[in-house]
Amino acid sequence: MLKLRNSFFFLLLLCFFFISIGDASVHEYNGVKFVTKGNAFVVHGGSEGIYSSLDDPQNLTSIIGESYIRFEKVTFRRPKESANASSKPIQAVLFEVEDRETIGGSAYGGQRAVCCTADLAKLGVCVEGEVIYRPSTITPNWPKVFGVAFNGDDEVATLRYQSIKVAKTGMYNLYFIHCDVNLKDLTVEGKTVWKNPTGYLPGRMAPLMNFCMFMSLAFVIIGIFWFSQYARFWREVLPLQNCITLVITLGMLEMAFWYFDYAEFNEGGIRPVGITLWAVTFGTIKRTISRNIILMVSMGYGVVRPTLGGLTSKVIMLGGTFFLASEVLELVENVGAVSDFSGKARLFLVLPVAILDAFFILWIFTSLSATLSKLQARRMMVKLDIYRKFINALAVAVIVSVGWTCYELYFKSNDVYNVQWQNAWIIPAFWQVLSFSMLCVICVLWAPSQNSTRYAYSDDANEEFNKDDTNLTLIQPSPTPSKEFRPVQGSNGASNGGDLEEDKTE
């Protein structure tokens, strides 16, 4: 088991230290309306981490590709009632996150504004009605600010086609901005293409494609181990082990679909909705079943209880609620997402999932405490030993989870502008690794073997707990009688006989 854990730790390090060249995507605008931000009207055109074009003295860039942001048929449309009014220019503002302070300004230390005001215009630092910006002291000729104005009574104005080469690795932000109150109903159409040396996948997502490839390999390895044991001892397989088989299969499918999702996205620049939907759904089903398995094992599923009893509906309801909450969260977070910018809607969707996870943890440890106490009281030492190993692994996983959650909160609170975008992929990757590690522990503890039935519930063992709300029962009686506890006539004989039989089993 120690060797297996070392192998997974090495795989984790290999994934974390894997270096990848970034990719980017295609952003489409279909009648997006401008919204008011301070004294400006704004449309967020995209935010992505982009790697610079490769330095290639041997002219390899022509083969691998350049990094650029290209504007294709970006048009602005105003309503007919506004067509006769003169308008100020609509500008595209493209800047790297470290240059964010170069956008906007204030007069005499007053409130910061994006659009040039009359006071600032008097100082000669900008043109009234246009975006305020200053040249970057970090990157020459940045930020990029250019625009277009409506001619006469035209209803449509189009930005000129152009491709801006990215020479510096960073998080780039694009905004379409205008300062004209007469254009409140203005909309934008068209698309921008964000590309890096190797494709269209956004820079922060790029390492995840390689991570999913390694995780797929890891699931294949654990699958080979599990299915080989399953085939050898299929006559001894318990229902609990069938559930574990399902989780491993779902894990393989999830990682495979995520890899294909990122690969297709990288190739064409458009997120494949169908593949993303399957990846999200398989992952959500896997997480739901995994939590239910851990909960039922904690309650004695297949070990000390033959049925779920009256709590069946509660377990199903908790699992179903968690599935719905997680599915909605993952769909909003991933389906159709082409930007490295996480929307505010996710914050409202994370809370229900976090509450349900906390409820799972509370119920699991409450049930484990009762199960351990009763196993110890009945001197079922083989089962007690495996449950102690399980609870130790589970406690470590919970402690690590709490620690990583605190780090994630710290990371996000100190990286509001996504400056650390190159390291952001580690956060979701860690949760996948932690979940996989817990699955490996369960596979080792409950691997199919010729002695699997000694962990199963048996009517002959008279293993019946007191009925209460903190315990579940779930599995059918094993056809093979358990020799773990055998009642013997007599006061002293009962205890000694049980101990002797337990030693033989161990």
Automatic annotation (TrEMBL):
Keyword annotations: Membrane, Receptor, Signal, Transmembrane, Transmembrane helix
Matches recorded under Pfam families: GOST_TM (PF06814)
Compartments it resides in: Membrane
Transmembrane segments: 208-228, 240-260, 272-289, 301-325, 345-365, 386-405, 425-447
Stretches for region Disordered: 469-506
PANTHER family cross-referenced by the UniProt entry: LUNG SEVEN TRANSMEMBRANE RECEPTOR, LUNG SEVEN TRANSMEMBRANE RECEPTOR FAMILY PROTEIN
Protein name: Lung seven transmembrane receptor family protein isoform 3
Organism: Hibiscus syriacus
